[in-house]
Amino acid sequence: MKNFRILLVAVLVFAGFTAKAGDVFRFGPRVGMEVNSMRLNSSLFDGDNRAGFTGGVMMEVNVPLIGLGFDLSVMYCHRVNANTVKDGANIAPDESTLLASDSYRKRDYIEIPLNLKYKIGLPVVGKVFTPYIFTGPSFAFLTSRRAINEAFKNKAFDVAWNFGLGFQLFNHLQVGASYGLGITKSVAYLTPLNSGTKIEGKNNYWTVTAAWLF
Questions:
Q1: Could you tell me how far CA 123 lies from the centroid of its own chain?
Q2: Does a structural domain hold residue 199?
Q3: 16 beta partners
Q4: CATH number for 201
Q5: Each residue of 85-127: pLDDT tens digit?
Q6: How many separate domains does the chain show?
Q7: Where in the chain does DSSP place strands (E)?
Q8: Which residues span the domain enclosing 91?
Q9: pTM for the whole thing?
Q10: d(CA 127, CA 108)
Q11: Could you tell me if residue 16 is inside a domain?
Q12: Which of 101, 153, 155, 178 has a C-alpha 20 to 30 A away from that of 188?
């Protein structure tokens, strides 16, 4: 009888831990798009505002009771590069054609963002709606071609820092928006442009994603 009681207690403890594990560790698919500017209306999804798309999987780890945790994602990202020419530059026609070309502006990456996340617990509605904020680095590995032309090549590795906010619905759906501030330059200059134009070669972008976590 004593052994049975010990076994029963062990089963109950294990069952309780398993039930709580879903609150501590979760994962699921994550998809979204990158946009040129954040607009709080339907024009957010306009074709001229979309600058790429992303999709992959996300893992979330939460510290019970305090609302703090982190998430880690592995994402495929098709990005229309946000490189810009410095104001007042005198661009030659052939240089303008190059900077507007798909080979210069579009890149594909495997991106790994790691975010520290804080969920803001709300009384009564917390099980239905929970806002959160997050920040952290993002590491992107180029999968498309490096060569652009004789003057430029894409860099194989890119780093940005994300700042974002979002909300969680019914403890499963998470919708978030973030701004990625480029830290490293995504383009290497083999030779300068003939006009001497200075180019901002960092990836700076807005991203809107939705994830379903189990």
A1: 29
A2: yes
A3: none
A4: 2.40.160.20
A5: 554 455 555 555 555 555 567 889 999 999 999 999 898 898 8
A6: 1
A7: 25-35, 50-62, 68-80, 84-85, 106-119, 129-142, 152-154, 157-169, 173-182, 187-189, 199-200, 205-212
A8: 25-212
A9: 0.77
A10: 37
A11: no
A12: 178
